[in-house]
Specification:
- Helices cover 63% and strands 0% of the residues.
- It is mainly α and 366 residues long.
- The chain folds into three domains: 41 residues, Zn(2)-C6 fungal-type DNA-binding domain (CD2-Gal4), CATH 4.10.240.10; 156 residues, no CATH class; 123 residues.
- Helix 10 crosses helix 18.
- About 5% of the residues have low confidence.
- Keywords: Membrane, Nucleus, Transmembrane, Transmembrane helix.
- InterPro entries: Fun_TF (IPR021858), Sterol_Uptake_Regulator (IPR053157), Zn2-C6_fun-type_DNA-bd_sf (IPR036864), Zn2Cys6_DnaBD (IPR001138).
- It comes from Dothistroma septosporum (strain NZE10 / CBS 128990).
């Protein structure tokens, strides 16, 4: 009986012959075994290799996602998204829908990564805080570079991504204010820069309101702010403080009719609106709402360092202080109100007595 010819292994045989454990003649593009058996024939190098033309296209269009950014995105989709709302019905918007949009719009992706870096910084050890802040600044700068030009061409396709970023921008603006070495004048200037950014972002909501109400952000767009015409909902100390502000507005505008009384009133009643009892799911909206409610004219008064406008801003510090349990504004209310007290002439100090007292109190979670 003739002996069986031994099987000789080949290192570079096709995948099909290797799976069948038969000798492959390694003929390409299709070996003889696969030709005779009408089988699919492929080689490992063919599966793993990318044609040069395709590789060049990939390199030109997309860069490999850095591990650090993958970690930030994971942190956002695991933890940070919950800070955008306390309403479980809106979790999917921020955890799933917004990240999906971010892969189409790089400014939104950078915005997500910037917010995640800030959030991680809040929880990180001191040795990591500077690195995470620099990372947040890096992504914020890239986001704004791509975002700002888009504001000139808001349409139905990009409005949801622009609106999502405008919400993230509010958190970024306040989160970036955490610099303990700033003097009083610099702190106020930083807040005004923050207000400028927020005022610009509201253009998206106004211009695209119809489209936004038809999409994933409908629940947010349908939030109804109460029309506040008095201070009945405020606690006693706050009511008296705002009534004193109204009296000062009347006195100031009587002596100088050129003063924009409507801007003062809008900022005061805007403060009362922000302090209106609200469900937890509006926390982030409340934080960013006041400069928008106060209006552009009031913000321009602040830029001129108008004393009465600054006094009203000092009262806004109380609102920030009361919401200080939110990570991105912790401690900011106290610093803002005290900075304004340092900047103003002593004659205005009586109007700051109540806010200075309130921001000195320890706020405990409800």
């Amino acid at each position: 009986m003739p002996s069986r010819r031994p099987h000789t292994k080949t290192r570079h045989g096709c995948n099909t012959c290797k799976a069948r454990k038969v000798r492959c003649d390694e003929e390409k593009p299709v070996c003889r075994n696969c030709t005779r058996g009408n089988r699919s024939c492929s080689y490992p190098s063919q599966i793993l290799a990318i044609p040069n033309s395709l590789a060049t296209h990939i390199d030109a269009q997309d860069q490999i996602f850095p591990i650090r950014d993958m970690e930030l995105l994971h942190h956002y989709t695991s933890f940070t998204y919950k800070l955008m709302t306390n309403d479980p019905d809106q979790f999917e918007i921020w955890q799933v829908n917004v990240p999906q949009m971010a892969f189409r719009y790089r400014f939104l992706l950078h915005g997500i990564l910037a917010v995640a870096a800030l959030h991680r910084r809040y929880e990180a050890e001191d040795s990591q805080k500077e690195t995470l802040m620099n990372l947040a600044r890096y992504h914020q700068q890239h986001a704004l570079t791509l975002y700002i030009p888009r504001l000139h061409s808001i349409n139905q396709d990009n409005c949801n991504a622009l609106f999502a970023f405008s919400m993230l921008l509010g958190i970024l603006c306040f989160g970036m204010l955490d610099d303990q070495d700033l003097g009083s004048r610099a702190i106020i200037s930083r807040f005004l820069d923050c207000f400028d950014a927020l005022m610009g972002a509201t253009a998206v909501a106004y211009e695209a309101a119809h489209w936004l109400r038809q999409g994933i952000f409908r629940p947010i767009m349908e939030e109804i702010w109460p029309e506040v015409h008095d201070f009945a909902h405020l606690k006693e100390g706050a009511r008296e403080a705002l009534e004193s502000l109204l009296a000062q507005v009347e006195s100031t505008c009587r002596s100088d009719p050129a003063d924009p009384v409507q801007a003062y009133l809008a900022s005061i009643y805007g403060w009362a609106t922000v302090m209106y009892p609200a469900p937890g799911d509006r926390q982030v909206l409340i934080v960013v709402a006041w400069p928008v409610l106060a209006g552009a004219t009031y913000v321009s008064l602040l830029k001129r360092r108008d004393p009465l406008a600054l006094v009203i801003l000092g009262h806004y510090g109380v609102a920030l202080h009361l919401y200080g349990r939110l990570w991105m504004i912790e401690g900011l209310g106290k610093r803002l109100t005290e900075a304004i007290a340092e900047e103003l002439d002593v004659a205005w100090r009586p109007l700051l007595a109540w806010p200075l007292s309130r921001v000195s109190e320890v706020i405990t979670p409800e």
